[in-house]
Amino acid sequence: MLVRDLSRMASRHGYLIRIGREGVAPAADGGIIQPQCDWPSGAIGIGEWQGAPIAALGEAGSPEWPAARQWLHSLPRDQFPLLSSALQVLKWMRDHRFCGRCGKRMKRLEHEFAMHCTGCQHRSYPRISPCIITLITRGRELLLARSPRFGPGMYSTLAGFIEAGESAEEAVRREVFEEVGVEVGRVSYFQSQSWPFPHSFMLGYYAEYAGGDIVLDGAEIEDAQWFTPEDLPGLPPRFSISHALIDNFLRSVASGR
Ligand SMILES: [Zn+2]
């Protein structure tokens, strides 16, 4: 488990995650945690792992390294929060080098993830963008959709960013209607997940179908269908909350709940 404590980062020694422009460096054990070492300059401590400090390093990397998304299929489960934190912290530091208010160079504050502007005192923190992700159900059927960027045959739950001023439940109803044209009745919270592509925070919901036929939005969604548990398409990667929403629903159908 990643312990989110930055008090021991000054030693500049510990585990390391190496993030390249195109991928994440594999370690000898098949995961992404490199053995303990003195951290190269530019490494950013992100916490402690198995009793030792751990840092993320952004570098050019090698085109041979598997892409971050590819790791979702093979990464040991307990390393997902490390990958997620490393990707997001590095991206935030890269994108917030200058003050968004006055334009001066920002300075990293020690012991927390904050960039501080000495000119106007503005602070920036890692950007986290809340999204809803929802599985629409109708009895024992589930509505799954595919985006043009999915791999062949893969379908998933619907997702979208929460707009400024909107509640998560309102976002569920709006996204569902915009993307597939159906109305939903009861909406119930499931669980959440940090999703570092690039900095989403997914709030998972079940939504019960209430009416309407599937009408595709034509842009974000290229197909959407009702599926039964016996006849499922390719599903999203196992670490994703989308997979968990589907899996949990299938288990409840199988047990007759
Ligand atoms: Zn400023």
From TrEMBL:
InterPro entries, per this entry? NAD-cap_RNA_hydrolase_NudC, NudC-like_C, Nudix_hydrolase, NUDIX_hydrolase-like_dom_sf, NUDIX_hydrolase_CS, NUDIX_hydrolase_dom, Znr_NADH_PPase
Keyword Transferase tagged = no
UniProt keywords (A-Z) are:
Hydrolase, Magnesium, Metal-binding, NAD
Q: Which domain of life is it from?
A: Bacteria
Domain Nudix hydrolase as annotated: residue spans: 126-249
Kindly list the GO molecular function terms attached to this UniProt entry.
Answer: metal ion binding; NADH pyrophosphatase activity; RNA NAD-cap (NMN-forming) hydrolase activity
Q: Which SUPFAM superfamilies match?
A: Nudix (SSF55811)
- Reactions this protein catalyses: a 5'-end NAD(+)-phospho-ribonucleoside in mRNA + H2O = a 5'-end phospho-adenosine-phospho-ribonucleoside in mRNA + beta-nicotinamide D-ribonucleotide + 2 H(+)
CDD domains (UniProt xref): NUDIX_NADH_pyrophosphatase_Nudt13
Which cofactors does it use?
A: Mg(2+); Zn(2+)
The alphabetized list of GO BP terms reads: NAD+ catabolic process; NADP+ catabolic process
Name the top EC class.
hydrolase
Q: Does the keyword Magnesium apply?
A: yes
A Gene Ontology cellular-component term: cytosol
Enzyme Commission number, as recorded: 3.6.1.22
Q: Identify the PROSITE patterns for this entry.
A: NUDIX, NUDIX_BOX
The family assignment reads:
Belongs to the Nudix hydrolase family. NudC subfamily.
PANTHER family named among the record's database cross-references: NAD-CAPPED RNA HYDROLASE NUDT12, NUDIX HYDROLASE, NUDC SUBFAMILY
Descriptive protein name: NAD(+) diphosphatase
Q: What organism does this protein naturally occur in?
A: Cobetia crustatorum
Source organism phylogeny: Bacteria, Pseudomonadati, Pseudomonadota, Gammaproteobacteria, Oceanospirillales
What gene codes for this chain? Answer: nudC
